[in-house]
Each structure stands twice: as structure tokens, then as C-alpha cells.
Amino acid sequence: MSNVLNTFLDENLQDLRTQGLYNEIDPVEGANGPIIQVAGKQLINLSSNNYLGLATNDELKKIAQNTIETYGVGAGAVRTINGTLDLHVKLEQTLAKFKGTEAAISYQSGFNCNMAAISAVMDKNDAILSDALNHASIIDGCRLSKAKIIPFAHADMDDLRAKAKQATESGLYNKVMVITDGVFSMDGDIAKLPEIVEIAKEFDLITYVDDAHGSGVTGKGAGTVKHFGLQNEIDFQIGTLSKAIGVVGGYVAGKKNLIDWLKVRSRPFLFSTALPPGDVAAITRAVEIIMESTELHDKLWDNGDYLKKGLIELGFNIGDSETPITPCIIGDEKLTQQFSKRLIEEGVYAKSIVFPTVPKGTGRVRNMPTAAHTKEMLDDALAIYAKVGRELGVIQ
Ligand SMILES: *Cc1c(COP(=O)(O)O)cnc(C)c1O
Predict the structure, then answer these.
(1) Distance, CA 215 to ligand 1 centroid (Å)?
(2) Does the keyword Transferase apply (predicted)?
């Protein structure tokens, strides 16, 4: 190894470890369900994004297996050569129906989708108004486009309006976009989409909502844009197929001309192999399940509300959560990591989330209850929270 690289790695890794910012990864030994096995131990799992339990759904497993028998394990090419299977077309029609739009396009991941979609439309002569707490993939997608990035204070509509006015009146930019998460993954709060749409109309902003944590969760399962009835107002509806949908992939839903453009101009669609057939068939059925019934959605919210109520009664700070995403904000990074470590030792898998994923000094243990948890599992988790919270002086 080059000496320069070796020194760089050693110094920086050491620095992260000293600051308590180095994240250790624990492999899960088996399926990522409500109970997981880590290092041979059974733990109540409050860390997955498998909101509806679909990642381990029996019907979806069968569909994936049967599809693999017919189509094989890989798509074989990028979408534009001959990697577009009839299954991809059906998936995209289903996604458009799900989101209430004319058309949709799928990508290999939600992260990839933001790399693809923003830079297909925005360039160095444009500007993007971006919520300060937007997901890393949105930030990277914005950077890749080379547009001027203008952050606005999280969920602060006065700040957004002032910056939208300034950007559009400056004459410096051809196009201006406003971009936001639908549900903020670290706090569980919902974007103020009605106000954002109002501001966008006033200044003719392009609207872009990444609802990775909203689909399957908000709007009776249909997501945050439909929750507010704004499917005709939002230009880009982004989602992931890896969270509530339970598999892998990402998509953009919108007007037909937008999707047509992304099919000829978005680079991950043109230069990276299509989603594999077994996954595509499972995803399509997962979306249908969410459209057919709110049963899993209702169970998820029931469990989320139950866990929140229990944590608040114990005296924890759960921040501004409006969704099943339930942070326990501890603050100090090292204490947060110690808290999470003790929870795991006692039987609850709830990971610490610290800088740089969240701002410094706002370290938290994030809880993601799912539709697959039982009340008994949640009661056990709350008892462990009480014990560890008192032990570490986080609660009285
Ligand atoms: C998780 C997440 C992504 C990434 O989705 P993947 O499908 O896991 O790549 C993108 N955007 C937001 C807002 C997310 O929360």
C-alpha cells in the first residue's frame, strides 16, 4: 500500500474511534424480521426499514422463486440494450398507479435514483433549494448536477420563501428546484408539502419529493404526496423499493414527458444493469399488496403509537416524530453509542445514529417498529429501555 494512503487511513480511523464516531457493523445471522440473531443472540429488532414486514413475506418469497425459475437470476443488460423485461414494464405501470401519476421509471436503488434524476434535469446554470436535513443521496445527487445548492433551514417555510424569491429574482439561474424528503428519516417528521407547493407555484419552482420513508407508511400506504392530495402538483415523486416495499430499487413517478426524458438522459438507467427479475416480480406484488389493503399499514401505526407512548411515559425525548420512526435523542455521541450497546446486550437491537448522519450533539438511538412486531415484543423492548435509561442516567 502507498505510504501516503496508509498514513491517511490510520490517522483518520484512529481519530474517528477516539471521538466515538466509528460505527461497528454487526452481521445479522438470518432474516431481517422482528426478531434477529446477532452474534448468536436473539434480539428484538428495532433497526430495520422493513416497515410492513414484506422483506420476509411468504407470498413474495414464492413469487421471487418462481420468477427466477422462468427468467433466471439476472436481467442480463442495461435497460436500454435488452435488459428491459416485460416484468420491468409491469412494475413501472404498477408504480404509476400507486403514485397516481402518468408514468414511472425504476432504478437499481433509491440512492441511485437521486444520482440519476436530479442531474438529468438540472445543470450548472440552475439552482436547487434543499432542506438542510435532506438525505445524503439527495445531497450527492444535487452535487453531481453541478447546480448551485442553496440550503434552507429544516422545514422553515419563511426561509424557503425568502431564498426562492432571491434565487428567481436574481436572474442568475435558468431553472430553480425545491427538493425535500417526504418523511425525514432521522426525526420521523413530515415535510410541509402544501406550503412547499404554494411557494413553488408562486416562483415556478420544480418540485422534487423523495418519499423513501413515506411510501407504505403515510397516506394510508400511498405516501406523503398522496397524503396531502398533491400528486398533480409534485413534479418528481421519488421512492425506494427497499424500505416498506421490502426488496431493493428506487423509482421516479411523474408526468410522461419527464419519465421519457429520464429514459434517455439518466445515466444509471443507461449505464448500469437493470433490477433482477425475481426482485422485480416480488416488488410488483408488494406494491399491489399495499394498494389492496391497509391491514399492514394499520398494524405498523398501531405498533408505532404504542412504542412512542411507552417511551414518552418513561421520560425519553422522542423529538418531533409524526410517523412510526421514533428517535430517542440522547445528545452526546459516546453516551449514545454506550446506550445502544447496553440495549443490545439486554436484548434490543436499536442502533445509535451519530454525526455525520445527524448533526453533532444530536446523537440518538432510532427505533423502527414494524407491522411484524407483537405487543409482547414491544413491552419487552420498553422494559429494557427503562432499565438501560435509568442505569445510564438518561431518564430518572
Ligand atoms: C433510504 C433512502 C434512500 C436510499 O434508498 P435505497 O433504496 O436504500 O438506496 C434515498 N432517499 C432517502 C430519503 C432515503 O431515506
Answers:
(1) 11
(2) yes
Task: Indicate the burial class of 5 (C-beta count within 10 angstroms; 0-12, 13-18, 19 or more).
Answer: exposed
pLDDT in tens, 331-344: 999 999 999 999 99
Cα of 112 from ligand 1 centre, angstroms = 9
Please tell me the distance from the alpha carbon of residue 41 to that of residue 150, in angstroms, as a whole number: 46
185 is catalytic: yes
State yes or no: is 106 an active-site residue: no
CA of 111 to the centre of ligand 1 (A): 5
Pairwise CA distance, residues 219 & 212, whole Å: 13
Which of 135, 163, 226, 243 does the annotation list as catalytic?
A: 243
> pLDDT digit string (tens) for 200-223?
999 999 999 999 999 999 999 999
Which residues contact residue 313 at a Cβ distance below 8 angstroms, ignoring those fewer than 6 apart?
none
Nearest CA to ligand 1 atom 15: 212
- pTM as predicted: 0.95
Residue nearest to atom 5 of ligand 1 (CA): 110
- pLDDT, tens digit (0-9, with 9 covering 90-100), for 14-25: 999 998 778 788
Ligand 1 atom at shortest distance from the alpha carbon of 49: 1
Q: Does domain 21-50+294-391 fall into CATH 3.90.1150.10?
A: yes
- What atom of ligand 1 comes closest to residue 248's alpha carbon? 7
Fold classification of 58-292 (topology level)? Aspartate Aminotransferase; domain 2 (3.40.640)
Nearest to 107 by CA among 272, 245, 257: 272
213 catalytic per annotation = yes
* Band of residue 354 on the pLDDT scale cut at 50, 70, 90: confident
Q: By the 8 A CB rule, do 271 and 115 touch?
A: no
Q: Which among 235, 237, 194, 213 has a CA at the least distance from the CA of 96?
A: 237
CB of 181 closer than 6 angstroms to any ligand 1 atom = yes
Closest CA to 181 of 259, 141, 238: 238
Task: Spell out the domain ranges in the chain.
Answer: 21-50+294-391, 58-292
Please tell me the distance between residue 114's alpha carbon and the centre of ligand 1 in angstroms: 9
Gap between the Cα atoms of 373 and 357, Å rounded: 26
